[in-house]
Amino acid sequence: MNIHEYQAKQIFAKYGVPTPRGIIANTPLQAVTNAQELGGSVWVVKAQIHAGGRGLGGGVKLARSIDEVKELASEILGMTLVTHQTGPEGKLVQKVYIEEGAAIADELYLSVVLDRAAEMPIIMASTEGGMDIETVAHETPEKIIKIQVDPAIGFQAYHGRELVFGLGITDKNEQRKMIDFASKLYKLYMENDAEMIEINPLIKTESGDFMALDGKMGFDDSALGRHPDIEDMRDISEEDPDEREASQHGLSYIALDGEIGCMVNGAGLAMGTMDTINYMGGTPANFLDVGGSANAETVAKGFEIILKNPKVKAIFVNIFGGIVRCDRIANGILEATKMVDVNVPVIVRLDGTNAPEAAEILKNANIDNVIAATDLGDGAAKAVAAAKGE
Amino acid sequence: MSILVNKDTKVIVQGFTGKEGSFHAEQCMDYGTNIVGGVTPNKGGQTHLGKPVFNTVKDAVATTGATVSMIFVPPAFVADAVMEAADAGIELAVIITEGAPVRDMQMAKAHAVKNNMKTIGPNCPGIITAEECKIGIMPGMIFKKGNVGLISKSGTLTYEGANQVCNEGFGITTAVGIGGDPIIGLSYKQLLQEFQDDAETEAIVMIGEIGGDLEIQAAAYIKDNITKPVVAFIAGQTAPAGKRMGHAGAIISGSAGTAKEKMDALEAAGVKVVISPAEIGKAVKEVLS
User: Fold this and answer.
1) What is the reported pTM?
2) pLDDT per position as a tens digit, B232-286
3) CATH fold of B138-288, please?
């Protein structure tokens, strides 16, 4: 689960990680009140969406007067912001964060993520703040410092020294401030079961203080149960409504661009089914894993969600029953055809536990647009042909 | 021959009396697995499925001499169960549970390694030595005895792969589902070596997916250490970047972790890479003839 910048900064503040002061607003009027409350003469109006590249997309702007705050807030609120991370359809901006201006002397980069190879958290830092870090990693990898922190010992002073010397910070006072910053960030990463924290840029102010000018946080979905405060930060308007509806029914669904709807058990086989459709010259319309406890209702729900997509010309149901029993899936397909108007050909491949019973159920039902397939290759080929109207 | 487990392996079940634990323990026993007991706190002294229940893993090991534990406890308690098994002297823990927090698994895995306990999973179908010992949730009937070893991140692709191998007239020595989480126990490298050392295994099927770099590491390892033929499939060639494809670990970050990158590395290491899982059976036939 991801959260907004302003929410990440609330967590930072709780742990004493310095950030500029700011207040969230839903309306231009509120934006003005917030700016007045913050005081000063320069404010930043920042669109709050779950995607990077907001500045380049026109979602982050500097205001030098209260009138300008109002003007910019009116402009940004309600706009559809397109960045390299939103996809071409963009994202609707529903909230703006009004933040006090900061006097920037230097821009750095700092993040904490899981190093999957080392199986421990890693702190990454760079002097190239404000740049796309993927680009920095690609073009000048020597400018990225990586420090693994073994959770068994936690963040130690030597980790801090590696960090400040790596960043070329020589002033002892600044060294102390940066080490303190990083140690607090590591602490909040661990205590909140974060998956990643990224601060880009982390600024040094003209007075020699370090501050998180931006903040991006993602959390381990499996650990949200023990963090109700973070679960409360979930913004459902940021989630795809179909994906969300699917997950409420125990289905894992992701929409794609193609024409063949897929309903599969298991994430690996679901991806493998998409790959096979592609290999046979078709295009998958979605990823859909019905999970280990599929029944008639979940299958019907799956059909319903797949068929919401008008591009779908055929559906390929590919089940290798282990925990999922094929007869239950077969009954689910029958139920689904009663509950949902399935108006495209459905190619069904059921293998594994109780497959013969399932075949019998489907044969006896004798539904027009249900086509049986013998194996994965056969099913994918039939689905591709059906989508082409052959 | 086989790897890691066989008909003589003594297995206990942690989370023995729960719904999932009971159902799958019974299925495993029906398959022939030598389950010698289980652990459920506060139910020590009872009998479940005809086997003794213990309060702690230490008690279970002391009484039964078990060396392997199959773990079915709920996600929030998985790390605790794994560490308890490691401290009790269990040699291999097979962790079936899905949804264990990543931070917990970092700690549990580190503790297991320190105590020389091997782990498989979490979020995996388990391990099966065909017609001898099933420790997990896979449908046993599709695994016919034979000479092909199988390693897979995905449960259902394990079944798909094994089924095709058997339909081509071959069979399986041992199949291992290593799990789809960001932090897992035994991985391709160690298992490839186990199969390399197993006299009965003549070819290896390796099924991977997008995310992380385990398959890239495996490719380098195969090049230097594995002489038996390897067939590989990587799921997620058509997956969009930045989206989590069902498994917690299946996500392409930036340009890293793509299927193509992994397929290229494996191909360069001399592995027979197939584009669709529907080709696994045929490819095995090809490398074995």
Assistant:
1) 0.91
2) 999 999 988 777 666 656 665 655 789 999 999 999 999 999 999 999 999 999 9
3) Rossmann fold (3.40.50)
pLDDT in tens, B173-230: 999 999 989 899 999 999 999 999 999 999 999 999 998 889 999 999 999 999 999 9
Could you tell me the CA-to-CA distances from A387 to A256, A282, A318 in Å, in that order?
A: 15, 8, 16
- CATH superfamily, domain A1-20+104-237, is ATP-grasp fold, B domain (3.30.470.20)
* H or E element in which residue A348 lies: strand A346-352
**Shortest distance, CA B63 to any CA of chain A (angstroms):** 32
CB contact under 8 A, A268 and B152: yes
Cα separation of B201 and B52, whole Å? 35
Ranges of CATH 3.40.50.720 domains, chain B: 11-120
Instruction: Using alpha carbons, list the distances in angstroms from residue A117 to A273, B186, B216.
Output: 28, 13, 11
Of A171, A109, A174, A117, the C-alpha closest to A145 is A109
Is the CB of A256 less than 8 angstroms away from the CB of B238? yes
Chain A residue with minimal CA distance to B243? A254
Residues of chain B with CATH 3.40.50.261: 138-288
Q: Position of tokens 């007239």?
A: B169
Cβ proximity of B251 and B244 under 8 Å = yes
Burial degree of A197 (CB within 10 A; 0-12, 13-18, 19+): buried
Do A322 and B137 make contact, defined as CB atoms within 8 angstroms? yes
Tell the CATH topology of A21-101: Dna Ligase; domain 1 (3.30.1490)
Residues of A assigned a catalytic role: 109, 198
Any idea which residues of B carry the catalytic annotation?
A: 247
The arrangement of secondary structure in B11-120, i.e. its CATH architecture, is: 3-Layer(aba) Sandwich (3.40)
Exposure string (b/e) for B219-253, b if CB count within 10 Å is 16 or more? bebbeeebebbbbbbbbbbbbeeebbbbbbbbbbb
The second-level CATH assignment, the architecture, of A241-387 is 3-Layer(aba) Sandwich (3.40)
